[in-house]
Design brief:
This protein is α+β, with helices and mostly antiparallel strands. The chain has helices spanning 15-21, 56-64, 83-92, 96-101, 123-134; strands at 7-11, 32-43, 46-47, 53-54, 68-78, 106-111, 115-120, 140-144.
């Protein structure tokens, strides 16, 4: 597996693996905030409200609800930024280059619940995310680099 990549695409065989994937073991998000850019998330048939800004504790609570995401876009920013700075940057991220130039550290794109793309600036984090995803039998992983990524926008 090429760890000189900027992103990874994961295709999970089982919904249980999707939930476990979001536990992100070995990564401490305590000094970061998640920005919920867009979502359509359900748990047991009922839509779940996901606030626009939340921390890793809230993410863990959502995971415990065994959610199903039709689509979801999450951005991860340092908690030291003001909400105004985060909102301004989030609104300006459309393409990969916009993401690279921002303070956003990670973008998680989910579609059809079993497909996840993670763009991550921290290669140690990305390596851990890839290793974690590899622990789920049947999961297909596709590393992406600037040269191999065909995505034109950072949304689903």
């Amino acid at each position: 597996m090429d760890f000189n990549c900027s992103a990874v695409e994961c295709e999970f065989e089982k919904l249980e693996d999707f939930w476990r994937f979001f536990q992100f073991p070995g990564i401490d998000f305590s000094s970061y905030i998640f920005l919920n850019v867009d979502y359509d998330v359900y748990s047991h048939g009922a839509q779940i409200y996901v606030p626009p800004v939340f921390n890793s504790t809230y993410l863990n609570q959502v995971i415990q609800q065994e959610f199903v995401a039709e689509h979801m876009i999450l951005h991860l920013y340092p908690a030291s930024l003001s909400l105004e700075q985060v909102a301004e940057q989030m609104a300006s991220i459309d393409k990969f280059q916009d993401y690279i130039q921002s303070d956003c550290q990670m973008i998680v794109l989910v579609y059809d619940c079993l497909y996840v793309e993670v763009y991550c600036k921290d290669h140690t984090w990305l390596h851990r995310i890839i290793e974690h995803a590899r622990s789920f039998p049947g999961t297909k992983l596709t590393p992406k680099s600037l040269a191999t990524d065909t995505r034109t926008t950072m949304n689903v």
